[in-house]
Design a protein that fits this description.
46% helix; alpha+beta; 4 strands; globular; NO_sig/Golgi_transp_ligand-bd; single chain; four-stranded antiparallel β-sheet; 2 domains; H-NOX domain; 15% strand; Heme NO-binding domain-containing protein; H-NOX_domain_sf; Heme_NO-bd
Length: 170
């Protein structure tokens, strides 16, 4: 697990212009803490940025976009994400994700064991996916979980999605 996670973190930190990455030598948490210190930002903010960066990786983006036709559909299927990730790799232990939708229309996402790292990572991922779907929403992270208030599902044009990268080539 650590090799896959470390490699992803190393690629992200390189993209963030963090030059002093002790590749493969440190556990992921320590790598992120050191990078956050170098960048002068809180670790949870850096982890949220990592979540947004992961969405920009084509293979991960395709896996995520396959989960819903619009952002709300994607949100309501988010509890399937741990199993979808296990289809690709069983090296990453993804905690269970629970969803609830209030009468006020707010969607709440909670993560098993309330892991602040996973909550921050998922917040960044949700922020990037909302942009990808062209959705205007407010995403708020708290100790209770993540609150998503969707204002406009069609605020901007969504990025075109094709199941295969080759489908658009002809």
């Amino acid at each position: 697990m650590h090799d896959l996670v470390n490699r992803a973190i190393e690629k992200f930190l390189h993209a963030e212009s963090v030059h002093e990455v002790e590749a493969g030598l440190l556990p992921p948490g320590l790598m992120l803490r050191n990078a956050a210190q170098q960048l002068g930002k809180p670790v949870d903010e850096l982890v949220e940025d990592l979540g947004a960066w992961l969405v920009r990786q084509d293979e991960i983006w395709r896996l995520l976009r396959f989960c819903g036709s619009d952002f709300l559909d994607f949100l309501l299927r988010l509890d399937e994400l741990p199993e979808r990730i296990r289809l690709i790799t069983d090296d990453v232990e993804v905690p269970e994700i629970a969803l609830s939708r209030g009468a006020d229309g707010l969607v709440w996402v909670t993560i098993a064991a309330g892991s602040p790292v996973w909550t921050a990572l998922l917040s960044g991922l949700l922020r990037a996916m909302a942009d990808d779907y062209g959705t205007l929403c407010v995403i708020t992270r708290s100790k209770e979980g993540i609150c998503i208030d969707v204002s406009d599902l069609a605020f901007a044009e969504a990025r075109t999605f094709r199941l295969s990268a080759r489908a658009g080539q002809a």
